[in-house]
């Protein structure tokens, strides 16, 4: 009786030690210092093991073993499920038997003997120091497969095989196959699932290492050393737990095993997620390379347009607004196609201009079509309703659903055609060649007169000798009756600033000057969205012609924009369409505020016209040289690399600035 009591005590203490080992293993999962020590043992030599072939053997062994274990642990739940499909091993492959056997010894008898998991981990990493990272994990898993598979294979013995029966008894198999404790058999089930999870983790890094060789930019998508470290801890835990279970006949119920399993499942989820992310990114890279080749050398517009949408998801991805029917991309073959690329903020003004163009008979006679390519990053019912509402206003082709747009194609559109959330129209010829990356600016400025909207037409329109940027910028749609003021050669003062104080300060002297009888038509265009849209269209359209930034017309446009964006506001004084002054609102305000006290008498005495007196006084006020700069928004797509200062012979500095105006201007 006493010896039995002593045996129970010894087994209970042994069980406590084993649980202490599991808790110690749990702790070193997140011990970064210890992990670094293990990582530092890595010293691979030139010769290594064919990891794919070795993993194939391990996969066969553990999947087959897990199936047997499942059938014993839960006979009813596995009926009719069949065994796994075994893959034939590579002919002539020789596994690293010495390393496998040495590690097998470390994770079983030596681990239980030393009862120090850190010592065991150190021994394993030193033993495997010369192998690649993934081979370390696969060799360690091979060691578990060796004795785990050997054990469970005996569960399939025939009654006539007395030798196998004797071996099974010596290995403690009847304690599992004929259990008297239901709770204990559940522990075997939990352990078997953890082994499957560890196998899945290892499969992820094996596949990743093999698959990522041709995409070096993704080689760090999974932290392989860290993953291998965690896999080896998991294998060691499985081994310690299994060895303890088959060697002890006690009342241990695996109380701490679920906690360990949860940790392993979390690690598995992370590795699996990283692997799935890697596969998606690799697919995107492959698709990106395919689209790059297609965009660089298209042979057909249908081929190019198909690349923009997920054709596999819908063989008829286009919707014709005027007919309210769906259609295939092939209907656009041998046609000139204008791709309208925008988000849901396509303005009603832009839409109305395009509808007028689409309604022209010649547009269809020349075999032109418009296709709306929506770039919408948000999701939800509200977004979908906005999409449908906008789509219903378009008589031309559009993508049937916004989700059909190829996300990789969006990246190419941004890179190749400089899409930056601002609406663009890319013109394609029948062969898919781009005749204009963005015709939206010339469409806004000239409408149908810019047909067929090629870059050469844009250059021709800008080359007219009588062209006036001021008349192009201002139409009656932008400012009602402005054309009448231009034709009658009235003084026109345009100004704008985001600071209300600057607006008030310029309006005060202007009011007095008008009361004094000077016929000035003054307009605050700060919040006139159409004005800013046309101004940016002027810049883009002119720069698309590779215009010299020193050209007076170009300088006028850039000066106005820069004064508003960089210098607190702008003010332009003209007589009709002839520009008198184009300067910052601060400088113009300073000159105007001195009208009453300084230069009013020159105008009232009829010595000089208002504009001549204004210029003369301005030149007296600002005599010192000032820094000359101008601002080109990146949306224009063309930024000159080297620019000579138009005031002095020096080269201008190029300063990069990131800015957000929250949708304004």
Automatic annotation (TrEMBL):
Sieve element occlusion C-terminal domain residues: 511-662
Protein name in UniProt: Protein SIEVE ELEMENT OCCLUSION B-like
InterPro entries membership: SEO_C, SEO_N, SEOA
Coiled-coil ranges per UniProt: none
Taxonomic superkingdom: Eukaryota
Protein source organism: Eucalyptus globulus (Tasmanian blue gum)
Boundaries of every Sieve element occlusion N-terminal domain copy: 29-298
